[in-house]
Amino acid sequence: MSRLNELISSLCPRGVEFKTIGSLVNYERPDRYIVNDTNYDDEYGTPVLTAGKSFILGYTYETENIYQASKDEPVIIFDDFTGAFKWVDFPFKVKSSAMKILKSDDITLLRYIFYIMGRINFTSSEHKRLWISIYSKFTIPLPPLEVQQEIVNILDKFTKLEAELEAELEAELEARKKQYEFYRDRLLTFGSEVKTATLGDVIFSLNTGLNPRKFFKLNTDDAENYYITIREIQNGQIIPTDRTDRINDEALRLCNNRSNLEAGDVLFSGTGTIGETAVINETPANWNIKEGIYTIKPNPKYLNSKFLRYLLTTQAMKNKYMKKAAGGTVKSVPMQEVRNLTIPLPPLEVQQKIVDVLDKFNSLCSDLTAGLPAEINARRRQYEYYRDKLLSFEDVS
User: Fold this and answer.
1) Where are the alpha helices (DSSP H) in the chain?
2) Which residue, of 73, 79, 92, 255, has the fewest CB within 10 Å?
């Protein structure tokens, strides 16, 4: 019999009490700990946290009103709008008042509650405070402290193993990505014998999408078309999701008048995350692009659309257009600077051969790397299965 089974058999053989999380956890609003200056720099000492995927947004130079979490006195930060949460055992500041800082009482291990919260699969599109209205009211099993500690010990080991495996798989994924980028850049590097041209001279037009502020509203009741942003341009593809904003037919018509999207156009993100690209395979019937995404129409007499798309992703070309980026927090490459880019212009048959090679290599890399996230997800599901079994108890009442 395992130590955990021995403890359960000895201390709570007939089950355990269930209590609301809110009765076991105290919370603090983070108003004192909100960062005042978002001028982040890795050289500064204090991390600024969010409970989302980013977790550490950056580091601030501010030295006052820092929450002094530590290994001995850890906390959970909880995003009141999304329900995301993170374990924190180091000093920090937070991004906004949307956080709650959670601390447990004397009869509950905070780490146990952290693992229990991982079982809660609550989703909501409502923009409201979730801790008091929803999460604090969930009931959870409350075994004796010795049982809680043994469960935490087991899950900590699982968590460490999972993190180590995920790090190995992500390192492999990054290595494959770099290998692909190396060969792509080699193929798209030309000597002086290949003529060059200004991009503006070998395209029909370069336009951008339409900003909804002045012209239309997003996500109206009759909105059935997609409003594509940088988030939907992934690995050279346009992939709408259930999180993609929607526009109605009239808004789509206005966007079409501005960007005039057609098959063969190259999309290029010129604002924010600069340099994401995709080629439009079919003239869109139910989507258009936001302002800041540029649509480039190559002249097929001179320029292959896929060749241009691959060319814009090379490090040499990125260095060129990033030098022209301007702005404050959100930088942009002006459209005129994109038009002024000097690009190599080998014969069309050479462009097509390069595209064929890169398409095959890209497909091979995609097939290889697709298995890595699948492996990570399989391990995660295995972890969640054992976690849920460990945290399942009969209600003594």
Assistant:
1) 3-11, 21-24, 110-117, 130-133, 145-187, 212-215, 249-259, 305-312, 315-322, 335-339, 348-390
2) 73
